[in-house]
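Same chain as my last thread, 216 residues:
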Amino acid sequence: MFTLAIVGRPNVGKSTLFNRLAGKKLAIVDDTPGVTRDWRDAEGHLFDRSFRIIDTAGLEENFDDSIQGRMRQQTEHGLKQADAVLFVVDGRSGLTPLDEHFAGWLRRQKIPVILAVNKSENEKAVQAAVAEAYALGLGEPILISSAHGTGLEDLYHALEPHFPPEEEENDEGDDVGNFSDEELDAIEGLEEYEFKQAEDDPEKHLKIAIVGAECR
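reply #2:
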């Protein structure tokens, strides 16, 4: 199943977005940075698409064995399982050096990255953050509000090129393609014969032959 990892620094709204895509409250949402310390996953839905979503711990610059360092390791582990990354920044507070640091790190990864400016329910209030987001080098940012559910259509269109092609449904009820031309001619001839007999003798019971490959 297609897997999307939601990443970003602490307190940008990743868990709120995770809960909205999952359709239920699975991740703890709190204003305190660092509440999400381990990544979690669930099945998410966006219009006609279903996929796996990973809510990662907030990205931190620590590389040691501290809590922040372990959070970063968990995030990197979750990223390895993803087919695409949604990098979330905070439209209200604007970009921080931490955002810029991890944007540079994500550019070096061999994985598609979609940039989302969250908390953008008031588009005029986040214009400065959107302008700054272009400078991250991750393509055109999309404006979303995970709390209000706005911008999800734009998110869908941003993800659409990365979704695997949908499998075509097979028409199992049509088995004509399993017969050779000779077998089809024989079936048609039998049908014509049976119905001709019925026309000649209307009171005679119609006989129907059922043919096909033996199935065990």
